[in-house]
Design goal:
By secondary structure, the protein is an alpha/beta fold. It has 7 helices and 6 strands, in the order βααβαβαβααββα. The chain has a single domain (6-138, 185-233), classed as Undecaprenyl pyrophosphate synthetase. Helices cover 42% and strands 14% of the residues. It binds farnesyl diphosphate (FPP).
Length: 245
């Protein structure tokens, strides 16, 4: 197998961490045990991203559609999130990781919100890996909110609708100016064999490379993560232009 090219590490990697439920079923354990195993897998990937010099890592932890799950599962995911912050915040901070949240996270239970705020505050000045956790996130919701904000500016006479460009939309997304403009993901990985985006970074992934693997998220190892990066490094990116000769 080829080695990873450390000079061409993607600047932004986004991951749909799918398959915790099926992993739990396959092991005959409750779904929440699957999410717990998923949290451990996530921890390893975050650490590896820091070591490899990845600039931004975005993980899809809870979508705007995930509220449809049982109250027990939803509550359990938030408890795990609090546990993750409690257990990992010191190490994340030591490793110079900056934590951000993508999405309407203030609608989460109050204890989860306060735990997240603590993580945001503590790591705000860090300059290493930027770790974005997508929570209560949905791309359509994000784009809708951006349109609404532009419409408000247009109505107030601050912006001529004729002047609205794609860049205006980008700047008003959660990944826009509020986050000092996170670059679009170079690589999007989805585990568990599903080949869809599920309302994740729809706008931002216009020119991303996609790697789909069959492994269920809790079984996704650092080695497999590196394999996905190597696959990405073998791709030719044209951004709609022609092959560079
Ligand atoms: C998808 O698996 C995973 C989720 C909806 C939750 C992701 C959560 C974690 C990785 C751990 C918790 C960590 C944080 C930071 C919240 P699924 O349940 O959709 O799997 P299935 O398709 O097999 O049912």
């Amino acid at each position: 197998m080829k080695n990873i090219d450390l000079n061409r590490i993607p600047s932004h990697i986004a991951i749909v961490m799918d398959g915790n439920g099926r992993w739990a079923q396959a092991h005959g354990v409750p779904r929440l045990a699957g999410h717990n195993a998923g949290m451990l897998a996530m921890k390893n990937i975050v650490r590896r991203c820091g070591q490899l010099g990845v600039g931004h890592l975005t993980v899809y932890a809870f979508s705007t559609e995930n509220w449809k799950r049982s109250a027990e599962e939803v509550g359990g995911i938030f408890r795990l999130l609090i546990l993750y912050v409690e257990r990992e915040l010191a190490e994340l901070h030591k490793n110079n990781v900056r934590v951000s949240i993508l999405g309407d996270y203030e609608k989460l239970p109050a204890d989860a919100v306060s735990s997240l705020k603590k993580a945001l505050k503590k790591t705000a000045g860090n300059t290493g890996l930027h770790f974005c956790i997508a929570l209560n996130y949905g791309s359509r919701d994000e784009i809708t909110q951006a349109c609404r904000r532009l419409a408000v500016k247009a109505k107030a006479g601050q912006l001529d609708p004729e002047d609205i460009t794609a860049d205006h939309i980008s700047r008003h997304l959660f990944t826009g100016e509020e986050m000092e403009r996170v670059p679009d993901p170079d690589l999007v990985i989805r585990t568990s064999g599903e080949k869809r985006l599920s309302n994740f970074l729809l706008w931002q992934s216009a020119y991303s490379e996609f790697v789909f693997v069959d492994t269920l998220w809790p079984d996704f190892t650092v080695e497999e993560f590196e394999k996905a990066i190597i696959e990405y490094q073998g791709r030719e990116r044209r951004f709609g232009g022609r092959e560079q000769k």
